[in-house]
Design brief:
The protein has 399 residues and is mostly helical. It has a two-stranded antiparallel sheet with strand order 1-2. The protein has a two-stranded antiparallel ribbon with strand order 3-4. Strand 3 and strand 4 form a beta hairpin. It is elongated. The protein starts with a helix and ends in a 5-residue tail after the last helix.
């Protein structure tokens, strides 16, 4: 062990070199800064600050490997020195080691929970990780589409058949990929849904559901909107009883409807997007009827989506798609108030009211009104529905 006088002398010399290195760093002379920090480390190799500062200098030069090595050494020396975690996470991020970087910065926040720079880096890393997953998802979807198309065309050609529409679809997808470097299906597995033989029923199910919905011709609102959806359910149950017994297939139907709604919304076709979003929710809810649970369908939510403002529609779809395709749209509409409809068809306010100002029927929780007056006026019509839902909730009605 060196004498105390020598230890103090070495500390003073190394600290002096640190100050020179800091001045060089401030002047953006990063090579000189690294040289001075290295000299300081040679005199005092147990000071984590010297490694931290040299890591910052390496980072400023873009030498992320050396920056990460010094930051790791800093953490090893002093696990409570939060700047070491910040510098290591930043270096890992620049080397595209996003998962490692996120793990590192979480550890750093455990040490320095109020450090603003670490919190900022955490948000950035989370966004980058999500973006990387989205890009991987898009690439996977595009590859699967290409493979499915190739297999489909080869199969038809082997039987002496040609399908011009498939060739045109492939050209369209390739053009989209060339222009946008992406071809997102918003959660659909194209191999299973679009071209695989086992996926044929999805399109037939969709067509049957639409026919059943359109078969109810009367044009009023609330209760008959439910009648339209119930008609769609009956039509599909009659033709595809085995599908309603398979939760995985119903899940894929919901995914298909959500994907359709997302694509249509991005194309500006909001009305049709609303229909598919409300259909997705209805199918998900109606599954409880087919499996014998007989829980009441949330008619209020079905109607809210069928008449949804763009804020409500985007919020619903973003929760059900694995991609970030609606993130920009959400930024556009997030400040818009969410609207809904008063259940009284004779409402003096025109029925469309800000959702936060509506009152729910406390008995069935399925109807919403803008005022007590509207609820009283609508009671003769609503009473039958309310009684039915109340009996289901109380368990006095069963199949």
């Amino acid at each position: 062990m060196p004498p105390p006088q020598l230890t103090l002398l070495l500390f003073c010399a190394s600290y002096f070199l640190l100050r020179i290195g800091n001045a060089a760093y401030a002047a953006k002379d990063f090579d000189e800064a690294i040289e001075q920090y290295t000299a300081a480390i040679a005199l005092d190799s147990k000071n984590c600050v010297y490694f931290s500062n040299r890591s910052a200098a390496y980072a400023a030069k873009g030498d992320w490997k050396s920056a990460a090595d010094d930051a790791q050494e800093c953490i090893n020396m002093n696990p409570s020195f939060f700047k070491g975690y910040y510098r290591l996470a930043k270096a890992q991020s620049e080397q595209h080691l996003l998962a490692d970087a996120l793990t590192t910065i979480k550890k750093g926040l455990d040490v320095g929970t109020n450090d603003r720079e670490q919190k900022k880096l955490m948000r950035k890393l989370k966004a980058e990780v999500k973006g990387a997953k989205d890009e991987e998802y898009r690439k996977s979807s595009a590859d699967q589409i290409h493979n499915a198309l190739e297999q489909s065309i080869q199969l038809m050609e082997s039987h002496g058949l040609t399908r011009k529409c498939h060739v045109m679809e492939r050209k369209r997808i390739e053009e989209d990929m060339k222009n946008n470097n992406k071809c997102c299906m918003h959660g659909i597995d194209p191999m299973r849904v679009l071209w695989h033989p086992d996926g044929k029923f999805f399109h037939e199910f969709e067509a049957t559901f639409l026919d059943g919905f359109r078969s109810v011709k009367r044009q009023t609102h609330t209760s008959l909107l439910g009648e339209k959806f119930f008609s769609a359910y009956v039509a599909t149950m009659a033709k595809f009883p085995e599908v309603w017994e398979d939760e995985s297939k119903i899940g894929m139907v919901v995914t298909l409807f959500v994907s359709n709604s997302t694509s249509l919304l991005l194309e500006g076709k909001v009305d049709i997007a609303r229909f598919y979003a409300s259909s997705a929710f209805f199918v998900q809810e109606a599954l409880t009827i087919s499996n014998g649970t007989f829980a009441p369908v949330n008619a209020a939510q079905v109607e809210a989506l069928y008449d949804a403002d763009e804020h409500t529609l985007v919020s619903f779809l973003r929760k059900h798609i694995p991609c970030s395709c609606l993130d920009e749209k959400h930024k556009e509409v997030k400040d818009m108030p969410k609207m809904s409809s008063c259940y009284n068809e004779q409402c003096s306010r025109g029925r469309r009211v800000e959702r936060s100002k509506l009152n729910r029927c406390s008995r069935c929780s399925q109807a919403f009104y803008c005022s007590r007056e509207c609820q009283v006026a609508d009671w003769p019509r609503h009473k039958t529905i309310c009684d039915f839902d109340a009996m289901i909730k109380a368990g006095t009605l069963s199949l």
